[in-house]
TrEMBL record, chain A:
GO terms for cellular component: plasma membrane. The keyword Mitochondrion does not apply. It comes from the Bacteria. Residues 88-280 form the ABC transmembrane type-1 domain. PROSITE patterns: ABC_TM1. This is Multiple sugar transport system permease protein. The chain crosses the membrane at residues 12-32, 92-111, 123-147, 159-177, 198-220, 259-280. It is found in: Cell membrane. The lineage of its organism: Bacteria, Bacillati, Actinomycetota, Actinomycetes, Micromonosporales. It is a multi-pass membrane protein. Keywords: Cell membrane, Membrane, Sugar transport, Transmembrane, Transmembrane helix, Transport.
From TrEMBL, chain B:
It comes from Catenuloplanes atrovinosus. Residues 1-26 form the signal peptide. Pfam families: SBP_bac_1 (PF01547). Keywords: Signal. This is ABC-type glycerol-3-phosphate transport system substrate-binding protein. It comes from the Bacteria.
Length: 295, 421
């Protein structure tokens, strides 16, 4: 009885959760709709005749005009080796590289700020936190000019290096690292371990929940990053998924039949982040809760 | 996306300004590099348009084996930001196409070559003067020549008009608003919609021209937006939303016409390509006409794209030659065919006499031909690119906040004056 009452009390939350899923469902169902069904009015909520045409349309011929046919997602970007998968690969590589490297750098910084007798560490920490108040758009121009002068436009290092210093991650990890007893670090020092060894062998294993929580934040942000890639990428082969989606959207402005292709691309784009979140959501919530308590 | 694009464009504009301060003024194009030229062409628009342009570029290579051109699509939403940053970094494409006003904006910042050096007399003679003046800087420079045109078209459902007791499409403002009332009475929920710059300055500009107004004096020395004609135009434009139920949000014109929710639409010529393919049930049920006239007669905005060469290209001569070749009969024919075949879109060449060969119905061709005689392009005056959005806000205040049209236009005029420098 008590359980039933609890479920009933949670019902509004379930309904609210359902509303969050509706756009995702709409995207997924539209990706499998045949072209004529896409523009049906009123729209169908379940594909009447599911098809993979949005991914690959066997009847499409670029030299023949056909009202109901558009190139499937994997038939586009023929001048890019790998086509859309190349964009996904770029996004995956860049997001993974930035996540791993920025977390390592931030964890090193957090260790120095919490476990080492660093002169002026309070001031350094205040400066790091203060930098979070500067909108990232403000740094866009100087970053761009630096990258240009380094001749890193249209390169992976141009994508990755400017994104490695993340003040919020440092702040978050500092809060978490303060909860790790200093005695552990002192004991390791007494045993003769160097600072780097202590950081890697003693502190980092205890940081897993916080690192996982931050990894989700960073991966999502970098996977969805649009503006920076837009301005530094000059060749299609270096584009990431959001930039590619933006181009697909341009095609849709002229022909609504491209909507299924956009939905197919959006579906493929969102799946990795959804899977990543589902796999690490326990760490995510725990990390948030812990940082909230310790903050 | 729209907000993102605005941020991107603003950042890019700052970048170009910053880039110019760090690199000094743009250098003049170097001499043509010897040997084969490999050119990268950023074509603003859809993937299908880029693919069509690639066919033209491949044909050009057959005629000029030393010149290879790779065409890459960039989206309208963020194309300006990309081109601005390319100009800043002095690396990127050799040729770009983009909005009609991009050429002057980029060129004045040192990002594009003045094509006058490469003799574009033939192109100028083949282009409508109203369009050519839009892409010519106040100083006479031509940083990009027109590549295609987008015109405003009045779309309508003859059957719905007939059912409402209307003999044909409205030809004047008075007839337009009467038609709205009668269609509403006959059961059409939203008789009139607007597309292409919905609820922004673009469709208002049509009213402005039809009322006999202008944004600037012809020599760009004065701002003329706060005139009596502009007040008349603004009042009529605002009445669409305030009294006649025109939606302020962007709508799907094809879907609305197909369902009978809309009976009339003022929209871009590119919409025509998607009606039959996107909404087969609409086939044969829609027609077009020129825009209704105002107190001063007919008038319509012409948009489209320019194409030009970047100032840092190693191959200015080769780039300029290709840009000029796009005006030839052969190039236009390829683009008309390929743009239609690949995307179902209508390609309107800046050469009016070639309109007859476009893939469009006779009715649409007649409409476009009639409209061509009444067009005005975007102003070529300094600061318009940044003033446009502010002007839109002042116009929207007339509808949203009940602001007095003259006061709103006076405010807009001040902003335009400040940006004019």
């Amino acid at each position: 009885m008590t359980r039933l009452r609890g479920e009933l009390l949670r019902l509004p939350l379930y309904l609210a959760g359902l509303t969050m899923l509706v756009p995702f469902y709409w995207m997924a169902s539209a990706a499998f709709k045949p072209v004529p069904e896409l523009t049906r009015n009123p729209p169908s909520f379940v594909p009447g005749d599911p098809t993979l045409d949005a991914f690959y349309e066997p009847a499409w011929d670029p030299g023949v005009r056909a009202d109901q046919l558009v190139a499937g997602l994997f038939q586009r970007y023929q001048d890019v080796p790998g086509g859309f998968l190349r964009f996904m690969g770029n996004s995956l590589f860049v997001a993974a590289a930035i996540t791993v490297l920025s977390l390592l750098i931030a964890a090193l910084a957090a260790y120095a700020l919490t476990k080492m007798d660093l002169p002026g560490r309070r001031v350094i920490f205040v400066v790091v936190v203060a930098s979070m108040m500067i909108p990232w758009q403000v740094t866009l121009v100087p970053n761009y000019l630096i990258v240009r002068n380094l001749e890193w436009l249209n390169t992976y290092q141009g994508y990755i290096v400017p994104a490695l210093a993340k003040a919020f991650v440092v702040f978050f990890l500092v809060q978490y690292m303060r909860s790790i007893p200093d005695d552990l670090v002192h004991a390791a020092r007494v045993d003769g371990a160097g600072e780097f060894r202590i950081w890697w062998r003693v502190v980092m294993p205890l940081m897993r929940p916080a690192l996982a929580a931050m990894a989700i934040f960073v991966v999502l942000a970098e996977w969805n990053n649009f503006l920076w890639p837009l301005i530094i990428v000059q060749d299609d082969t270096m584009a990431n998924v959001p930039v590619a989606l933006s181009r697909l959207n341009a095609s849709n402005a002229f022909n609504p039949h491209n909507m299924a292709v956009i939905m197919a691309a959006s579906l493929l784009t969102s799946l990795p982040t959804v899977i990543f979140f589902l796999a690490f959501q326990k760490h995510f919530t725990r990390g948030i809760a812990l940082s909230g308590i310790k903050g | 996306m729209h907000r993102r694009s605005l941020v991107a464009a603003a950042a890019a504009a700052m970048l170009l300004a910053a880039g110019c301060t760090t690199t000094g003024t743009a250098t003049t194009p170097q001499q043509d590099a010897a040997g084969p030229a490999e050119l990268l062409f950023w074509n603003t628009g859809s993937d299908e348009q880029a693919a069509a342009m690639q066919v033209a570029a491949d044909r050009y290579k057959e005629l000029h084996p030393d010149v290879t051109i790779k065409v890459q699509a960039i989206a309208w939403d963020d194309g300006r930001a990309k081109v601005l940053t390319a100009a800043t970094s002095r690396s990127g494409p050799d040729i770009v196409s983009g909005g009609l006003s991009w050429g002057i904006e980029l060129g004045e910042l040192g990002g594009m070559i003045d094509l006058n050096r490469y003799d574009v007399t033939a192109a100028r003679q083949q282009t409508r003067p109203e369009l050519w003046s839009s892409i010519t800087s106040p100083g006479g420079a031509v940083y990009g020549i027109p590549m295609d045109m987008t015109l405003y078209v009045f779309y309508y459902r003859p059957d719905l008009l007939q059912r409402a007791g209307l003999g044909g499409p409205p030809t004047t403002w008075a007839e337009l608003f009467t038609a709205v009332d009668r269609l509403k009475a006959s059961g059409v929920p939203t008789p009139l919609v607007e597309e292409w710059g919905t609820f922004e300055w673009l469709p208002w500009f049509n009213y402005l021209k039809q009322a006999g107004g202008s944004l600037y004096s012809p020599d760009c020395t004065e701002v003329t937006i706060a005139s009596d004609a502009a007040v008349t135009a603004t009042t009529a434009w605002a009445d669409q939303y305030r009294r006649y139920g025109v939606p302020k949000a962007t709508v799907d014109v094809g879907a609305g016409l197909a369902k009978g929710e809309y009976a009339m639409a003022i929209g871009a010529s590119y919409l025509a390509g998607g009606f039959d393919s996107g909404h087969p049930e609409l086939k044969g049920k829609w027609q077009t006409a020129p825009l209704p006239t105002g107190p001063a007669g007919a008038g319509s905005f012409v948009g489209g794209k320019i194409v030009g060469a970047m100032s840092y290209t190693k191959y200015p001569q080769a780039a300029a030659d290709f840009v000029k070749w796009l005006y030839t009969d052969e190039a236009v024919e390829i683009l008309q065919r390929e743009v239609f075949t690949r995307g179902g879109e209508l390609y309107i060449s800046p050469r009016p006499e070639l309109l007859a060969k476009a893939n469009a119905s006779d009715n649409l061709k007649q409409t476009l031909q009639a409209t061509l005689g009444t067009v005005t392009g975007p102003p070529n005056c300094k600061g318009w690119e940044t003033s446009g959005a502010e002007v839109s806000k002042r116009l929207q205040a007339v509808v949203n906040d009940g602001a007095d049209p003259r006061a709103a236009l006076t405010e807009a005029a001040q902003i335009m004056r400040d940006n004019l420098g």
